[in-house]
Amino acid sequence: MSRVIESERVEVLEAAERHDLALDDGSRVAVVGGGPSGSLFSYFLLQLAQRIGIKLAVDIYERRDFSALGAAGCNMCGGVISESLLQALSVEGIKLPADVVQRGIDSFTFHTAEETVTLYAPYREMRIGTVYRGGGPKGTRQPWWRSFDGYLLQLAVHSGARVVRERVADITWDDSRPQVHLKDGVQTYDLLVGAIGVNTPSLAVFEKLGIGYKQPKTRKTSNIEFELGSDYITRELGSSMHAFLLDLPKLDFAALIPKGDYVTMCLIGENISSEFVDSFVQNPVVKGYLAGKQDHRAGACRCAPLASLGDAVHPFGNRVLLLGDCGTTRLNKDGIGSAYRVAKTAAVTALFRGISSEDFREGYGPLCRSIHNDNRFGRVIFDVVDIIKRNAFLTRAVMRMARSEQQMTGRQRRMSMVLWDMFTGSAPYRDVFVRCLHPAFWSRLVWNIFVNPRSASTAGPGKEELVDRSGLGREYRAGEIIVRQGEQGDCMYVIQSGQVEVLRSNNGQEVRLAVLGEGDIFGEMAIFQKEARSATVRALTNARVLSVDRKIFLRRVHEDPSFVFTILQKMSQRIREMDAKLVTSGGQSEGKATR
Ligand SMILES: Cc1cc2nc3c(=O)[nH]c(=O)nc-3n(C[C@H](O)[C@H](O)[C@H](O)COP(=O)(O)OP(=O)(O)OC[C@H]3O[C@@H](n4cnc5c(N)ncnc54)[C@H](O)[C@@H]3O)c2cc1C
């Protein structure tokens, strides 16, 4: 009998403890680090809490002033926002403003010692954005832009977070709650989130918390800003990312990334030394794009940040969670994209499941494991790319295959898709790997190795007009058709700026169903049902529109079903408006124009 009572008591105590390990009205959350993972976690946590009527107090500890120039204001990276991240953010209702995006990128240009090939994004749309993480390169006169990290931090603040401009010096436990030590006192929280990246000694503070956390392995990389002038960049580099597939040892990724007046040179590989950077900028293929300014040692804005090689050990415990680079991140590519995915999943877990180690293991752990497993495929792919770069005949075959695909319509662009997804970081490494196993991929590659006699080409991305390249998506002029009723579609659209009208043809008469503006979506039915477009959408004013691929969309929905919340909200609003119209029209004939 006493044993039964004892086990019931244990159950009650466990339930009480579990109940205690949950966020509720008035719970206090500390987020250490206001980079992408910290800001996005705070933003989503507060947004989700608001939806279910819970009021949380979220403090973000961030010592950096993101408006400062140079390394002081910067989280040191290439600043490329991948197409999958841009599309996901826009579906979540986060549109990057024009003064945050330095340049929209519509293509990727690959350079080898012998030739150059450019791959274009679908619809030649500005699908990738380049940004400054901080205030911009040191020495910049009158910056006209805003920092990307500063913008995300502001999103969190507008959702109710408080920013504390202080460096967290230590963390201890107050009974079972985490305590943050500051210059003049100690603060106790219900949940502590570490989003401190890997370029900080504070990682040791989390290691000694007793949750079993071990920081990820890292390696040294290099970023250098070259001031080449906007006109030169538009003319010579265009709206293209330039990746270099050169026979240089231990180099996973080397790129020139065009921004406003600057080009960021980003080198990621096995401990990039200063001497390695010297030899890279002197390489004849690279030199040609630096307008004779390859003296990077003389006052250029440069940094040598550490890059995470994947994942930490046990990045969570009761009431503690580590996110982004200091937890689990994607190898080499789209680190900000993976910061967004883990931040959102962590916020959903903390709010709807709980904040115990068990809750994080069940709710947050699967995504970390999936990124970890995907990085394994990534490692294999980067090793294969290394072999290709060291063998001129293989490099030539890869470039030939990609080039001939670009010149032919109708044929599946297998090599182009592999290169695009691999270098833009838009698809999981596993997908890229599986695509490389396809027999048709191999037969084309072998044909290009042994048979295709085409000579090398040095065709770059093509000279561009000097026009504003800061917008994302594609610009449509007033009156231009964006989608046509009856056509098959495999993407939906998010309006970045301007207005469009939705039109339905009925018995030869055109009926305007709606006028949509910035932030609105259309064409979503093509994602949910494989049916022809039910209406035509035409630009009413000059409009900028970003397309969202079915595959990218569905992948996110499987990872995070709450991803569709904003779309459901908009669709339900639309149904409400249509209901209201039906009632006011009092059953008038359907075909009557409303224009
Ligand atoms: C060379 C290089 C190029 C890269 N290029 C790209 C790219 O083009 N695109 C891309 O998507 N990713 C890129 N990445 C990866 C990307 O930079 C990271 O994945 C991303 O910054 C991770 O975000 P985070 O919020 O986890 O960490 P971070 O961005 O490092 O932010 C951590 C924040 O924590 C703060 N902090 C640290 N310690 C404390 C403390 N004790 N108290 C208070 N605050 C603290 C810091 O000030 C910082 O603001 C690149 C990385 C490298 C190294």
Could you give the topology of this structure?
Blueprint: H1 2-20, E1 28-32, H2 36-51, E2 57-61, E3 80-81, H3 83-91, E4 101-105, E5 107-111, E6 116-120, E7 128-131, H4 148-158, E8 162-164, E9 170-174, E10 177-182, E11 185-188, E12 191-194, H5 203-207, E13 218-220, E14 222-227, H6 230-236, E15 240-244, E16 251-258, E17 262-269, H7 274-282, H8 284-287, E18 302-303, E19 306-308, E20 316-317, E21 320-322, H9 335-352, H10 357-363, H11 365-390, H12 392-407, H13 414-424, H14 429-436, H15 439-450, E22 474-476, E23 481-483, E24 491-497, E25 500-506, E26 509-516, E27 521-522, H16 525-528, E28 536-539, E29 543-549, H17 550-559, H18 565-585
The structure holds flavin-adenine dinucleotide.
Flavin-adenine dinucleotide (FAD) binds next to helix 2, strand 17 and helix 9.
Outline the structure in words.
- This protein is α+β, with helices and mostly antiparallel strands and 595 residues long.
- Among the domains are: 22-79 and 136-215 and 313-374, FAD/NAD(P)-binding domain (3-Layer(bba) Sandwich); 375-450, no CATH class; 474-585, Sandwich (Jelly Rolls), CATH 2.60.120.10.
- It is 36% helix and 23% strand.
- The chain is built from 18 helices and 29 strands.
- The strands form seven sheets. A seven-stranded mixed beta sheet has the order 6-5-15-16-17-14-18. A six-stranded mixed beta sheet has the order 8-2-1-12-21-20, with helices on one face. A four-stranded antiparallel beta sheet has the order 22-29-24-27.
- α12 crosses α15 and α13 runs antiparallel to α14 (429-436).
- The longest helix is centred in the middle third of the chain and has 26 residues, at 365-390.
- It is globular, with a radius of gyration of 26 Å.
- Residues 589-595 have low confidence and may be disordered.
- The protein binds flavin-adenine dinucleotide.
- Flavin-adenine dinucleotide binds next to α2, β17 and α9.
